[in-house]
C-alpha cells in the first residue's frame, strides 16, 4: 500500500513536470484528485488494512495529497503566467504622409559626395551664359553645328561685343573657363560643376532641360592615366565594385584626345542584352583638355595639362538604379504617383 | 553618324580571319564603335557602326576596313587592307579641265572639286542580284542599275555620287552657284522647296535649277526608264553650305550627312574609279574617255611635329619610339624622324581632323589601346575652395522639408508667357514652341500646375521646389536667384504655419513677422517674414507665407537672404534645479481676436510664464498649456494661482475673454 501511494506521488510529479498547458494540468488533476481519481481509489483500499496500518497510511496519503496540491498550484501559476493573451500584430501600419526628395537631388548629392572625397570643389556657374564660355573659349569653330539654332537655345538679347550671343548653357563645360578664371589661371584645379543644362530637343529620350555634372582637373603632369584613375574611382564608388568602365575613342571640340566612357551592363553582366550595346552602357564623354581651352582660361598648356568629363545626371543615376523609365520627361512630372516611384 | 555595313562587303577590302564578334569588340575599343551585329538569313552579319563627326574618312566600307587592318593586328589577329593606297584614276581615262560634252561654270569655293563624265547608250534595268542583296542588307531599296551604282559607290567609298539624265540638261550647260532667296526646286522625291538663299545649286542652260547640290538631285533631270545617256557626277562641296541647307530644309540625306562633315577631295577619284568599273559592265555602254575635273587647289601634304617625350607625358606611360612609329605608319602617316622629334605627314583623308600634336597623341593612344593603360588617381595639391556655402544649406532645407512630409518637384525653367512677369523675364530667341518661350521669373506658377497635376489626391498634398529664377538685367547676364517655394492643399493653416516655423527654427533664424497684404494672397492672410540683416541693422524681408486667393497655401523664401539672416545666438544653459508647474487653461475667446496677441499678452504678465502652447481648439474655446517656472526657487501653488488670476483678469479686461 505504501508503495502504491509512493507510485501515485512519483507518477504525478513526473506528469506535472511534463504538463505544458492548463488543460493538460486539469486532466491530470482529475486523474489524481477527482471523484474516481487515484487518491479516491487508494482511500477506498484503506478499509482493508489493519487499524495501525490504516492510521499510518492515512497520514501518508494526506501528506502526499498536500505535497501534490502545492505542486499543482505552483505548476498552475507557472502555466498561467506564461499564457498568451490575445494580441494582434497583423494590424496594418499607419500610412503617415512621407516627404520625398526628388531623384535628381538624391543623384546630385551622391555624385558630388564621391568626388568631394577625392578633393573636388563643388562650383556653380551661370545657366544663362555668353557664347564665349559655352563655345568660343571651348575651341568650337564659328560654324560648328552645336552653335546653330537647331541645337542650342539663344536668348532674345543683344550680343555682347566681347562675348557674343547670350544663350542657355548646352553643357556644364561652360564652367571650365569660369573656374579657370576664378583661380586666375593658377592650377591646381579640381572642380565638380553640377547644373541645369538646356538643349533644343524634346522626345521620349530627350528633354529641353536636364542636369549635367562636369569634372575638371588641371595640374602639372596630368595624363590619360589619371583620367582613367578618376573615372574608375567614381564608377566603383558610385555603381559598385563589380562594375567596370572602358574608354572608347570619341570626338569633342574641347578635348583631345576625347573618349566615350562606357560602364559594364548590370543586367546581363557584360554578355549583351536588350538594354545595352554588346554588354556596355554609355556613360558620357571625357577627354584631355584641348590646349586652346587652357590658353583661353589663362593657363599655359606647355606647363599644365588636364582632363574633363561631363555626364548627364539623370542618365547616370538611372543607370545605377536600373530604373527603366519609358519616357525621360516623366522625371519632370509633378504627379505624386510618378514621383513616388523615382 | 551611324552606318550599316555587311561583313561580306567589308571583307572585300579586309583580309582577316577575325570573327565578326571579335572584330566588333576590338574596333569599338580602338576606333569606330560597333554597337550591334545583326545576323542575316544568308549567314552574313550586318554591323551597326557609329562614326564620330571628325572621322568621316571611316564612314564607308573602305574606311572601316582601313581602321580594322590597323587595329586587329594589335590584338594578335592578322589583317590586311586590300585597297590600293595610291589614289590614281584608272589608266584608260584622262582628267581634263574642259570637255566637249559639258559646258560648266563652277564656283570653287562652293565646290572644291568638280568631276563629271558622260556615259552613252545606257539600258536602264535592275542591277544584278549581288548588288541588290548588299543594298537590301543595309536598308537601301534597289531601284535600277544606275541609281544602285551611285548608292553602292557612296557606301563603299564614302564619296557621294550623283547621276543626271544627260538629255534633260538644257543646252548641256551647268552653272554651279549659290541660290537666291525665293528660288524654287523640285527634288527627286517630288518635294518642292522654296530656297532661302546661299544653298549650293546648279542651273542648266534654260536657267532652271536642276540640282540641290549635296542634298538631292532635281526632279526634272532625274534618271528614268527611258534614260539613254547618263552624266556621272562626283564632287566635293563646302561643308558649311551643305549643313545649312540640310538643316533648313530638314533634308537629312546620307549624302548631306557626309558632305557636311567635310570630305577628302582626293577620295573623289576612288568614287569615280568604282563607278566607272561598275558602269563598264553594263552591256553596250560607251563612256567618254575624257573626264571633267575642276580642282584648282589639290591637297598639299600637311606636317605635324611632336616629340616622343610629349606623347608619353600626355598619355602617362613610356611607349618605345619603335611602337610609336609603327602605329603612326600603320595609320597612313608618313613618318620622318629628327632626333627626338617626329615629323608626321598627314594622309589626305585625315587632313580635316589632324592639326596639332594632341591629335597625334590621340591616334597613338587609341591604337595602343586605352584598355592597356593603367588607372591612377592623381596626386598633388587641392585647389582653392569657393566661398559658396549654399550647397550644404540647400541640403539642410531640403531634408527638413522632407521630414515635414513635403515632396520635392523639379519643374522646367522654360515656361510660357502666362507664367512670367514679362517686364523682367528673359525671352528665348528660338524656343521649341510657346511653352518654352521664357525663363521663369517665379517658382509659384509652376507649382500651381504641379498641384493641378495632383487633382486626384484628395488628402493633404505638400510640394516644394528649390531652384533658380531668372531676372533680366540691362547689358549683362540675367540675375539667377535661388528661391524656395512650398505649396500645400487641403491642409489647416495652423499646420502649414507650423511647417514654416519649424523650417525657420531648423535654420536657427532670428525672425519677426508682420501681416502685410501681397499679390496673390487673400487680404489679411499673408505674413511677411523679416530678419535683422547681418550687414545692416535694418530689417530685411526674407520671405512670406499665407493663404492664396486660389485656395492653396504657399511660402516663399530667398535662399541668399536666408543664408545672410541673423541666426539665434547659441549658449549652453544649465538645466534648472527647480521643477516647473504645468497647467491647462481653457479660454473662451471672442471672434476676430488675434490669438497671437493673446499669447503675447500672457507672456507679458509675468516672467514666470515660461512657455505657452495651444493644445486644443473647440469652437471658440482655446486650451493653452502654460508652464510656470522660476530659476530662483520652486514655485508654490499660491504663487502660480496669483499669476493665473492676473492673466484671467487682464485677458478679460483687454480682450473680453472668459474662462
- Counting helices, strands and paired strands, the structural category of chain B is alpha+beta
**What's the shape of chain B?**
elongated
Q: Largest sheet of chain A, if any?
A: 7 strands, mixed
Report Rg of chain A: 41 Å
CATH H level of the largest domain in chain B: which superfamily?
Phenylalanyl-trna Synthetase, Chain B, domain 3
Shape category of chain A? rod-shaped
Briefly note the CATH topology name of the largest domain in chain B. Answer: Phenylalanyl-tRNA Synthetase, Chain B, domain 3
Describe this structure in words.
The complex is a heterodimer of chains A (342) and B (659). The longest helix of chain A has 31 residues, at 51-81. Chain A folds into two domains: 2-81; 104-339, Bira Bifunctional Protein, Domain 2 (BirA Bifunctional Protein, domain 2, 2-Layer Sandwich), CATH 3.30.930.10. Chain A is built from eleven helices and nine strands. With 342 residues, chain A is α+β, with helices and mostly antiparallel strands. In chain A, helix 1 (2-18) runs parallel beside helix 4 (51-81), helix 2 (22-33) packs antiparallel against helix 4 and helix 3 runs antiparallel to helix 4. In chain A, the strands form two sheets. Chain A has a seven-stranded mixed β-sheet with strand order 1-4-5-9-8-7-6, with helices on both faces. A two-stranded antiparallel sheet of chain A has the order 2-3. The N and C termini of chain A lie far apart (83 Å). Chain B has 659 residues and is an alpha+beta fold. Chain B folds into five domains: 2-81, Phenylalanyl-tRNA Synthetase, Chain B, domain 1, CATH 3.30.56.10; 94-294, Phenylalanyl-tRNA Synthetase, Chain B, domain 3 (3-Layer(bba) Sandwich), CATH 3.50.40.10; 302-372, Phenylalanyl-tRNA Synthetase, Chain B, domain 1 (2-Layer Sandwich), CATH 3.30.56; 390-563, BirA Bifunctional Protein, domain 2; 581-655, 2-Layer Sandwich (Alpha-Beta Plaits), CATH 3.30.70. Helices cover 27% and strands 29% of the residues of chain B. Chain B contains 17 helices and 33 strands. In chain B, a hairpin with a 2-residue loop joins strand 32 and strand 33. In chain B, helix 16 packs across helix 17 (637-655). Chains A and B meet through helix 5, strand 1, strand 2, strand 4 and strand 5 of A and helix 2, strand 3, helix 6, helix 9 and helix 11 of B.
Amino acid at each position: 500500500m505504501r508503495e502504491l501511494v509512493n507510485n501515485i506521488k512519483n507518477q504525478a510529479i513526473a506528469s506535472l513536470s511534463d504538463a505544458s498547458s492548463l488543460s493538460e494540468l486539469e486532466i491530470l488533476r482529475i486523474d489524481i484528485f477527482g471523484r474516481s481519481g487515484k487518491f479516491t481509489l487508494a482511500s477506498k483500499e484503506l478499509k482493508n488494512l489493519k487499524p495501525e496500518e490504516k492510521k499510518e497510511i492515512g497520514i501518508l496519503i494526506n501528506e502526499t495529497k498536500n505535497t501534490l496540491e502545492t505542486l499543482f498550484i505552483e505548476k498552475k501559476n507557472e502555466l498561467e503566467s506564461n499564457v498568451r493573451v490575445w494580441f494582434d500584430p497583423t494590424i496594418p501600419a499607419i500610412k503617415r504622409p512621407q516627404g520625398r526628395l526628388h531623384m535628381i537631388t538624391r543623384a546630385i548629392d551622391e555624385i558630388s559626395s564621391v568626388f568631394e572625397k577625392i578633393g573636388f570643389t563643388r562650383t556653380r556657374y551661370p545657366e544663362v551664359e555668353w557664347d564665349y564660355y559655352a563655345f568660343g573659349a571651348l575651341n568650337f569653330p564659328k560654324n560648328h553645328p552645336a552653335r546653330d539654332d537647331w541645337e542650342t537655345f539663344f536668348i532674345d538679347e543683344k550680343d555682347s561685343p566681347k562675348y557674343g550671343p547670350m544663350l542657355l548653357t548646352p553643357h556644364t563645360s561652360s564652367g571650365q573657363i569660369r573656374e579657370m578664371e576664378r583661380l586666375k589661371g593658377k592650377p591646381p584645379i579640381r572642380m565638380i560643376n553640377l547644373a541645369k543644362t538646356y538643349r533644343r530637343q524634346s522626345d521620349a529620350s530627350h528633354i529641353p532641360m536636364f542636369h549635367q555634372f562636369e569634372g575638371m582637373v588641371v595640374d602639372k603632369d596630368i595624363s590619360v592615366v589619371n583620367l582613367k584613375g578618376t573615372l574608375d574611382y567614381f564608377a566603383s564608388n558610385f555603381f559598385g565594385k563589380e562594375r567596370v568602365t572602358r574608354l572608347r575613342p570619341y570626338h569633342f571640340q574641347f578635348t583631345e584626345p576625347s573618349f566615350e566612357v562606357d560602364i559594364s551592363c548590370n543586367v546581363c553582366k557584360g554578355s549583351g542584352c536588350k538594354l545595352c550595346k554588346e554588354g556596355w552602357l554609355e556613360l558620357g564623354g571625357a577627354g584631355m583638355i584641348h590646349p586652346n581651352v587652357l590658353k583661353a582660361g589663362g593657363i599655359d598648356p606647355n606647363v599644365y595639362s588636364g582632363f574633363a568629363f561631363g555626364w548627364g545626371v539623370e542618365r547616370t543615376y538611372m543607370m545605377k538604379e536600373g530604373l527603366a523609365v519609358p519616357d525621360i520627361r516623366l522625371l519632370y512630372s509633378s504627379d505624386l504617383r510618378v514621383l513616388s516611384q523615382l | 553618324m551611324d552606318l550599316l555595313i555587311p561583313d561580306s562587303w567589308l571583307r572585300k577590302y579586309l583580309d582577316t580571319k577575325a570573327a565578326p564578334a571579335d572584330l566588333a569588340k576590338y574596333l569599338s575599343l580602338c576606333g569606330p564603335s560597333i554597337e550591334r551585329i545583326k545576323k542575316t538569313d544568308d549567314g552574313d552579319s550586318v554591323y551597326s557602326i557609329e562614326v564620330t563627326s571628325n572621322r568621316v574618312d571611316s564612314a564607308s566600307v573602305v574606311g572601316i576596313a582601313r581602321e580594322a587592318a590597323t587595329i586587329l593586328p594589335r590584338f594578335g589577329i592578322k589583317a590586311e587592307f586590300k585597297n590600293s593606297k595610291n589614289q590614281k584614276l584608272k589608266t584608260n581615262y584622262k582628267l581634263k579641265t574642259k570637255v566637249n560634252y559639258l559646258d560648266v561654270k563652277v564656283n570653287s569655293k562652293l565646290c572644291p572639286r568638280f568631276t563629271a563624265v558622260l556615259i552613252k547608250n545606257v539600258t536602264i534595268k535592275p542591277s544584278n542580284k549581288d548588288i541588290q542583296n548588299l543594298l537590301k542588307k543595309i536598308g537601301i531599296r534597289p531601284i535600277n542599275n544606275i541609281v544602285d551604282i551611285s548608292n553602292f559607290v557612296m557606301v563603299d567609298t564614302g564619296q557621294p555620287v550623283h547621276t543626271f539624265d544627260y538629255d534633260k540638261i538644257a543646252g548641256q550647260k551647268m552653272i554651279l552657284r549659290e541660290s537666291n532667296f525665293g528660288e524654287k526646286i523640285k527634288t527627286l522625291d517630288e518635294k518642292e522647296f522654296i530656297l532661302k538663299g546661299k544653298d549650293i545649286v546648279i542651273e542648266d542652260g534654260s536657267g532652271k535649277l536642276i540640282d540641290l547640290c549635296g542634298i538631292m538631285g532635281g526632279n526634272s533631270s532625274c534618271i528614268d526608264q527611258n534614260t539613254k545617256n547618263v552624266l556621272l557626277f562626283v564632287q566635293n562641296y563646302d561643308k558649311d553650305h551643305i549643313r545649312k541647307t540640310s538643316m533648313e530644309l530638314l533634308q537629312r540625306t546620307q549624302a548631306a550627312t557626309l558632305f557636311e562633315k567635310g570630305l577628302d577631295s582626293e577620295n573623289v577619284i576612288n568614287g569615280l574609279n568604282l563607278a566607272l568599273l561598275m558602269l563598264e559592265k553594263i552591256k553596250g555602254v560607251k563612256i567618254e574617255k575624257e573626264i571633267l575635273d575642276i580642282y584648282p587647289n589639290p591637297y598639299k601634304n600637311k606636317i605635324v611635329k611632336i616629340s616622343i617625350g610629349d606623347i608619353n607625358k600626355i598619355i602617362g606611360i613610356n611607349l618605345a619610339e619603335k611602337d610609336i612609329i609603327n602605329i603612326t605608319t600603320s595609320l597612313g602617316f608618313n613618318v620622318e624622324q629628327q632626333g627626338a622629334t617626329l615629323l608626321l605627314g598627314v594622309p589626305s583623308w585625315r587632313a580635316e581632323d589632324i592639326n596639332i600634336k594632341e591629335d597625334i597623341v590621340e591616334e597613338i593612344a587609341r591604337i595602343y589601346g586605352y584598355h592597356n593603360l593603367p588607372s591612377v588617381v592623381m596626386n598633388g595639391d587641392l585647389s582653392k575652395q569657393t566661398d559658396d556655402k549654399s550647397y550644404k544649406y540647400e541640403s539642410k532645407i531640403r531634408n527638413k522639408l522632407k521630414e515635414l512630409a513635403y515632396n520635392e518637384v523639379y519643374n522646367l525653367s522654360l515656361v510660357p508667357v502666362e507664367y512670367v512677369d514679362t517686364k523682367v523675364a528673359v525671352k528665348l530667341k528660338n524656343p521649341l514652341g510657346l511653352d518654352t518661350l521664357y525663363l521663369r521669373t517665379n517658382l509659384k506658377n509652376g507649382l500651381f500646375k504641379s498641384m493641378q497635376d495632383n487633382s486626384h489626391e484628395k488628402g493633404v498634398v505638400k510640394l516644394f521646389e528649390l531652384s533658380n529664377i531668372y531676372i533680366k538685367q540691362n547689358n549683362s547676364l540675367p540675375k539667377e536667384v535661388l528661391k524656395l517655394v512650398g505649396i500645400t492643399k487641403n491642409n489647416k493653416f495652423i499646420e502649414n504655419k507650423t511647417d514654416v516655423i519649424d523650417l525657420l527654427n531648423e535654420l536657427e533664424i532670428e525672425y519677426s513677422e508682420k501681416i502685410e497684404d501681397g499679390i496673390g494672397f487673400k487680404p489679411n492672410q499673408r505674413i511677411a517674414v523679416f530678419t535683422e540683416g547681418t550687414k545692416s541693422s535694418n530689417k530685411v524681408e526674407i520671405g512670406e507665407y499665407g493663404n492664396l486667393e486660389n485656395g492653396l497655401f504657399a511660402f516663399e523664401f530667398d535662399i541668399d537672404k536666408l543664408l545672410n539672416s541673423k541666426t539665434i545666438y547659441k549658449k549652453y544653459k544649465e538645466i534648472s534645479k527647480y521643477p516647473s508647474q504645468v497647467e491647462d487653461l481653457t479660454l473662451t475667446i471672442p471672434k476676430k481676436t488675434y490669438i497671437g496677441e493673446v499669447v503675447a499678452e500672457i507672456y507679458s504678465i509675468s516672467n514666470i510664464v515660461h512657455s505657452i502652447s495651444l493644445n486644443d481648439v473647440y469652437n471658440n474655446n482655446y486650451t493653452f498649456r502654460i508652464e510656470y517656472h522660476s530659476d530662483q526657487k520652486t514655485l508654490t501653488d499660491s504663487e502660480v494661482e496669483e499669476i493665473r488670476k492676473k492673466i484671467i483678469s487682464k485677458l478679460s479686461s483687454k480682450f473680453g475673454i472668459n474662462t
